[in-house]
Amino acid sequence: DQQVKQNSPSLSVQEGRISILNCDYTNSMFDYFLWYKKYPAEGPTFLISISSIKDKNEDGRFTVFLNKSAKHLSLHIVPSQPGDSAVYFCAASGGSYIPTFGRGTSLIVHP
Amino acid sequence: KAGVTQTPRYLIKTRGQQVTLSCSPISGHRSVSWYQQTPGQGLQFLFEYFSETQRNKGNFPGRFSGRQFSNSRSEMNVSTLELGDSALYLCASSRGLAELYEQYFGPGTRLTVT
């Protein structure tokens, strides 16, 4: 049973537009959420995180939104650039819960 | 600061053999976690070591084991390899407990079992 779900395996966006990647979780005990980006032949790279006491965290072009009541988080990339093309994983953890990853969303940004 | 390093990068083994993978964390990081990544399955947590002690273990058979040394370097061992063990094995380090801090991943070891 997947506790962290990324329901869109892939997303295609035009350069300069907004990319929105979504993630749902089922365990209400998770209180720390992270996004990682992965290029082929490399390990995942930490992108941005948010704790459950906040509903938004921003870092440059990347913003993560957390909706605790819906158990949903999203990553917004504005504006999207071709170099953002990668697989994005969301992860949830907290308390005694080990980091649990979604299966990833492949983002393709077209020039 | 040097990143997480993993050796070897690629490995081909035969069913029934055993394999040991190595991971050197970022300097100062005391937590090392191991993950298995297979197509369509995302990252599956194997175990976490902190200060040479295994803190958590994922839902994997006992054939998968690991250890951490006093310098925080970690090794992962898989005995009696099966075809299904073919995967990318990722090591990640963090400055504190994995559930509280972001993790920094190595490039992974690609294991192929034939």
What does this protein look like?
- The complex is a heterodimer of chains A (111) and B (114).
- Chain A has strands at 4-5, 10-14, 19-25, 32-38, 45-51, 56-59, 62-67, 72-77, 86-94, 97-101, 105-110.
- With 111 residues, chain A is mostly beta strands.
- In chain A, strands 2, 4, 5, 9, 10 and 11 form a 6-stranded mixed sheet that branches.
- Chain B is mainly beta and 114 residues long.
- Helices cover 0% and strands 53% of the residues of chain B.
- The model of chain B has no long low-confidence stretch (mean pLDDT 94).
- The chains are: A mainly beta (111), B mainly beta (114).
Low-confidence stretches of chain A at least 5 residues in length (pLDDT < 50)? none
Tell me, rounded to a whole number, the average pLDDT of chain B. Answer: 94
What is the helix tally of chain B?
0
Largest sheet of chain A: 6 strands, mixed
Radius of gyration of chain A using CA atoms only: 13 Å
- Gap between N and C termini of chain B, in Å? 37 Å
Strand content of chain A: over 45%
Largest β-sheet summary of chain B: 7 strands, mixed
Task: Please name the defining characteristics of this protein.
heterodimer, A: 111 residues, five-stranded antiparallel sheet, B: 114 residues, mainly beta, seven-stranded mixed sheet, four-stranded antiparallel sheet
Secondary-structure blueprint:
The complex is a heterodimer of chains A (111) and B (114).
Chain A: E1 4-5, E2 10-14, E3 19-25, E4 32-38, E5 45-51, E6 56-59, E7 62-67, E8 72-77, E9 86-94, E10 97-101, E11 105-110
Parallel strand pairs in A: 2-11
Antiparallel strand pairs in A: 1-3, 3-8, 4-5, 4-9, 6-7, 7-8, 9-10, 9-11
Chain B: E1 5-7, E2 10-13, E3 19-24, E4 31-38, E5 42-50, E6 53-57, E7 64-68, E8 74-78, E9 87-94, E10 104-105, E11 109-113
Parallel strand pairs in B: 2-11
Antiparallel strand pairs in B: 1-3, 3-8, 4-5, 4-9, 5-6, 7-8, 9-10, 9-11
Task: Summarize the entry for a quick read.
By secondary structure, chain A is an all-beta fold. Chain A contains no helices and eleven strands. Helix content of chain B is 0%, strand content 53%.
